[in-house]
Predict the structure.
Amino acid sequence: MMRAALAVAIPLLTLASWAGYRAIVANSGQLIELPIIGYDPRDLLSGHYLTYQIDYGTPVCPDPTAVADRCVCFTVPKTGKASVQWQGECGLRPDCGAWIEGTCENGRFTAGVERFYFSEAYTGALAVVPPEATALLRLNGFGAGQVQALKVEGKPLDQWLKEHQQTP
Amino acid sequence: MSLQKQLQAWVGAGLITAPQGEAIAAFEKRAARPPWALYGVAGIGVTALVAGVISLIAANWDGIPAAVKLGLFFLMEGGVGALFVRQQAQPGMRREVALTLFMLFILAGIGLIAQIFNIHSNGWSGLLFWLALSLPVTLMAESRLAANAWFAGLATMLTIWGTSGGGKAQVAVTAGYAVAAVGLAHLPGLRLNEAFKRAALNWGMTFVVFGLTLAASVAWSIDAPAEVRAHAALPWAGCALAAGIALLATPPYAQARRWRLAIVATLVSATAFYTLPLLVPLGEQPIGGAVCFLIVWSCAGVAAVAAERQRLFDVISFFIAARFVAIYFEVLGTLAATGIGLIVSGLVILGAVTVWYRFRRKVAALAVGGRA
């Protein structure tokens, strides 16, 4: 009985802790806004999530053949989009308030914030990354980021989708 | 043959009396195993239920707040888990259905949390997370579905991870041997659920016999450059682990020694078949590859015979026959030449089988004092 109870409790507690941690990150940490773009139309829509690339405004991966960890520091204005203050090897990172850690692979920098889920009801309205789209990220201060929301033309994505959804 | 028919045959042959036959039938009925057909149908229901829940989650209902989605999930999962804990001392379908639903819903929960918080996955890390969380409860399963689902997840995770580059393929291959070792282990003090061990043995040996020989056949048929020699050491290390376990395991089968030796022969021949192109630039050697393929699968066939698994032996025989036919098409090309070659080979094989069968009967007769 004890063994069965542990076998059930451990996964439940672990999942609850993980969800709780993610909820804390989503509601705390520094909020920054960055522009997003898409490179490969095939990757833009997979299932019911949108994959995209963050437009850092400057090349983050100097060597397109190497696989390496990189860090990016941001300057965060009170309103508007953040801009890259510094980027390079994580071991050389200066003491910057808002930063994110990721990996360079095949010349592309990914930091685990390049995906956003949306309802299947809006697949007709979302074929490519809309122009002037931005991502709102929460940075936890330890190099990890979490996508809070996407915005298009200054509006939250779900609101923009409702306005642009094709009628059957 | 069913037990009833066997008992009738034994009573008819005078081996046991009718009252003894009835006593045996009554004993077996009391210790009866769960009806496998019923479990199979229940497994279909469980699979459909879980697939439906995952599809609902994937649809990402926008109108439901995240907190409600998570609350409903934990309520449902907690309820299924509580049902399992209550039933865990009573073997039966309810226990197994609750256990299997619980372990599969863990995967749905991981997907739900990833969807709500937009967590970017590389494909294999979510599966690895599920494998770790579901292992304790899977080890308590008595049904095959839960154990096979777990190993299917492991195989999928290793495939995604192993094909992501950076020399991970050989580590994934070695993990396949480790799975076979888990299935082969009958060591005192190592208590693993029988369903789990059986699934491990099936998946591990399927990987070695089918997966490795498929990869090796391709490598022998193309002029591929040899990899760094160190990468071939990992599969051999895995082979040594599994073979060592097979030789040290407590034999549960009647023909234990023959089975263990056949398993070791299968492991060693498959590893040699797979690693030789890594170590030596062979060039295109389709005939050599085909011969090695037949050697590996023949060892597997001997192991199936030793374990008295007739259906498995039938499947292995089919693949050996198919590969045998394919060799002739690869070498001779035209249908006419292939046909003549196959007819000659078929007659040779039938002749060898006939001679072997007659020779075995005479040897057995000599062994029991000349009775034919």
User: Anything to note?
Assistant: Confidence is low (pLDDT under 50) at residues 367-372 of chain B. The interface with chain A takes residues 58-62, 70, 74, 77-78, 81-82, 84-85, 88-89, 102, 106, 109-110, 113, 115-120, 133-134, 136-137, 139-140, 166 of chain B (CB under 8 Å).
